[in-house]
Amino acid sequence: MTEDLFRHLRTHVGNKRMDEKIMAKEMKELDERQQLLVITMEECGELIQECSKNLRRSEFFDRDAFKKEVGDVYAMIELLVEWDVLSWDEIENRRDEKRKKLSKWSDLISTSESRLYAQEETPMDTEQQFSVDTEEEYVERFGGWRGSVTGK
Fold first, then answer.
1. Rounded Cα–Cα distance for residues 16 and 108 (Å)
2. Contact 40/83 with Cβ under 8 angstroms?
3. Alpha helices in 106-146 (DSSP H)
4. Under a CB-based contact definition with an 8 Å cutoff, are residues 47 and 69 in contact?
């Protein structure tokens, strides 16, 4: 179905006589999910273009247009979730995977977060997982002191 859309657009883009009303009518013939994907593509393209302008002009992130385009893409992501194309859990899982990957290959992720990802990748046997010599080590490994062994 998407191939048909692109074939149609390629055929008519070269036709200079095709006016905006005809294009609008053609776009209305798409079902809602197709519209969702086409508009998402357009918004992502506009964000890409704005990122490029920021780099060329050395106006990093100060431009209102950049903020507008990020917001537009975010709105489309919300619509993708509303239309059950994907879920917030799927998005968040992928976000976590991407942050983990970035922690290895870029400086965007903090050192402490990078260390956590590195620890996750280092397999521990059961004895290593539960062997703790000091309260400080327990707090570092498990995130806080929880009282006595009996839980009282």
1. 45
2. no
3. 111-121, 126-130, 135-142
4. yes
Q: Quick check: helix, strand or coil at residue 79?
A: helix
Is residue 54 within a helix (H) or strand (E), and if so which, with residue range? helix 32-57
Instruction: Tell me if 102 sits within 8 A of 109, measured CB to CB.
Output: yes
Residue 75: name the closest of 32, 52, 44 by CA.
44
CA distances 60 to 50, 74, 99, 134, Å, are: 10, 19, 22, 46
3-class DSSP state of 150: coil
Amino acid at 3: E
Q: How do residues 72-83 score in pLDDT, each as one tens digit?
A: 999 999 999 999
Kindly state the average pLDDT of the residues 65-73.
95
DSSP 61: T
Q: Whole-prediction pTM value?
A: 0.58
